[in-house]
Amino acid sequence: MKSTKKSLVVCGLSLLMCCALLVGTTFAWFTDSVVNKGNKIESGRLDVQLWNNGVDISDSTKPIFDYNLWEPGYSTGANLQVKNVGSLAVKYELELQNVSATKGLETAIDVQVNGKTVGTLSNFMNGENLLEGTLLPGKGSDPASIVLKMQEKAGNTYQNAEATFDILLKATQATHEQDGFGNPDYDQDASLDFIPVDSEEDFVTAVENAKANETVQLQKNLTLDQPIPQSGSGTTTIDLNGHTLGSTSSDPLIVDQGSSFTMKNGNLALQRSGFSPSCIEVNGTFTLEGVNYTAKNSSGILVKGDSQVNISNSTITADGYCISTNATYGSGMTISVKDSTLNAPLNTTSTGVLLNVPGTLLMENCTVNSKWQSVVVRGGDATLTNCTLNNLIDDDGSIYTKPDYKVNENWGQGNDLPNAALVVGNHSTSAYRYPATCTLVNTDISVNDGFMTVYAYGNSEEGCGASVNYDSASNIGEVIRGENVTVNGQ
């Protein structure tokens, strides 16, 4: 028994020693690694050329058809060929553009393709194709004979008449190359419904005459000395294509009532004298997609009546309001801003968003940097989700930059309001007699020291107060409130 106990004691001590040794031990596991270097993403090149009688005329400024003594029976032609000199398969269309004529001459000029009459010039005034096809890299189309002929029966009516037109070659990627999953159809929806323009004159003409399904695409930076035009179809789509569109007009862009206007993929630079009205006035539907828009000496977008505004993946920088409404122009609008940044950089002047009539404001994944209020909801319903409001007002010693400005007195018009990042409701004796509600979801608000994050004040009439609601994920500081205000229902 003694020897057994002694053995147990020794074993116990050995176990304790082993455990003690293990406490400071680092285990050495088997390891291995593989590094795959030199990965590269390189885009293909889409490049087509237009040839006539064996000569590349892609960059030529000389018209193919240029004769000034036409008479009945006269004809002239060209042998046109499209070449794919890029590294991607393309589909192409060759069409006549900007066809115009006097005395009805377009009806007396026959168009022949490869010896077959396919119509008169009048049949090609709306973008119908002369040629179309698909080309693999390094390939060219068969030369096509294009002949214009003045009909023999054309009479004296057409003397001293004139017809002009452009020849337009458009190309986009075709379904040939496979993606990384072996799918050759990933680009099957690539569209040729665009009109490339590289001059102010061509831009205006193209936009005014564009069909509802056509997009006018910039090929270079353009600055207009007139308002930005709209399509007669009622639907305007402009692809800035990475370029800048500007206008020096005193009324840069007014979206007509009942119409739709979309601008995407580039830069928009407008200016106007005075903050109201704005550089862009919306009476219909207006959309910005992927646009860096700057409004100098003015406000950005004025939304009127029951209009619809959609902003996505864009940046708006305005010396006045980035986006605003006005009681003079009605209510019922819907404003949607997603994945965008609003910059209002002028101290005691610039506000991100002003909703001061019954309407709807929806902001998601947005940042507002302002030097006065970031968002004002003086009427209507606003919901901010995953947003950040940065009110960067500087106290310059003036009355307007005092942290308690307008807190205990009636508010003025526009953004002559308390100095808070978010202002909800109304404090006046007569105007803006409607309710205001703002809901914050996972939203952060930051201000300079001494200034308010949120200030709310409600009208005294039944149902016309102010309401602020926020969730636990929001970081908004203290809600400072006056009369007739509920916060999270309380």
Could you name the ranges where pLDDT drops below 50 across 5 or more consecutive residues?
1-26, 31-44
By secondary-structure content and strand pairing, the structural class works out as: mainly beta
Q: What overall form do the CA principal axes indicate?
A: elongated
How helix-rich are the residues, as a percent range? Answer: under 10%
Estimate the strand proportion.
35-45%
Sketch the major β-sheet.
19 strands, parallel
Mean pLDDT: 85
How would you describe what is shown here?
The protein has 490 residues and is mainly β. It has two domains: 48-173, Sandwich (Immunoglobulin-like), CATH 2.60.40; 194-487. The chain has helices spanning 2-23, 200-209, and strands at 48-52, 55-56, 75-84, 90-101, 109-113, 116-120, 129-135, 144-150, 163-173, 194-197, 215-218, 222-224, 235-239, 244-247, 253-255, 260-271, 280-282, 285-296, 301-303, 308-312, 315-318, 321-324, 334-338, 341-344, 351-355, 360-364, 367-370, 375-377, 380-385, 388-391, 420-425, 436-441, 444-447, 452-457, 466-470, 479-481, 485-487. It has a 19-stranded parallel sheet that branches. Strands 15-17-19-22-25-28-31-34-36 form a nine-stranded parallel sheet, with no helix packed on it. The protein starts with a helix and ends with a strand. The relative contact order is 0.06.
Features:
single chain; 490 residues; mainly beta; Immunoglobulin-like; 2 domains; 19-stranded parallel beta sheet; 2 helices; 41% strand; elongated; disordered N terminus
